[in-house]
Design a protein that fits this description.
Elements (H helix, E strand, L loop, with lengths): L4 H12 L14 E5 L4 E4 L15 H15 L7 E5 L5 H13 L5 E5 L8 H9 L4 E6 L10 H9 L10 E7 L7 H10 L3 H9 L7 E5 L4 H15 L5 H15 L4 H14 L6
Parallel strand pairs: 1-4, 3-6, 3-7, 4-5, 5-6
Antiparallel strand pairs: 1-2
Helix pairs in contact: 2-3, 6-7, 8-10
Amino acid sequence: MINDPMDRIAAALERMSPAPMPAPDFDIASAFVWHVEPDRLEPVPQVSRVGLGLLVGIDRARDTLLDNTRRFAGGYAANNALLWGARGMGKSSLVKAIHAEVLHDHPGLKLVELQREDLPSVSRLLNHLRAAPYRFLLFCDDLSFSHDDQHYKSLKAVLDGGIEGRPENVAFYATSNRRHLMPRDMIENERSSAINPSEAVEEKVSLSDRFGLWLGFHPCTQDEYLAMIDRYCAEYGVEADPETLRAEAIEWQATRGARSGRVAWQFFTDLAGRHRVSLT
């Protein structure tokens, strides 16, 4: 128990403003997750991801992002990237798979995941990354903003960098179901109710313009959906009658009311389980 009033005040101040995080050891892992309260970078021993070759139907986005990432990892000019579009079509899987692919030739490339809720702390994170002798893909999954959300202002520190500029060794990759990172009805509402409609939404809508790469992901066709399942079967050695497999796969997507890479993987997980095949 602390009896001295000065010691109690010092302890309270330390809780309110904890000591800065020590320089992280980036040698212990290739991927990290940023946490706050207190600030820390948690290493990820095993990243949950699939191989790049298993991602079917997104060839253009794959090739564009892979080339951009290779240039960035090699120390050349590269853009921040926004992967937007249909749910379950492999946006976040592509980022993680490309990191693994490029990591073979560029072991100094680190993946750092940042939660949307922690965007206000991004300037502190960038200070640690800026000083490190590595290159970082700063990754924010499922990024979007509501009408009263002020976190988008913190994102500008990543995309524009303020007076210091964005760290040369950091590229920002984000995924979102929304092209402009905000609901369409919110955009229309602000346009209709504001004194100056164009200025009312310009600040938020223009946020997506700060990404040099826009990669769109669209719902897959039935042929692409079936091709995804065939690729999984070949990769994991699951053998099934082609006609039965096709019929079951179509029935599965019909019960889900959608076709996507996620639905294809969910069907294949069920199929592999019935065939007593482990996916680990």
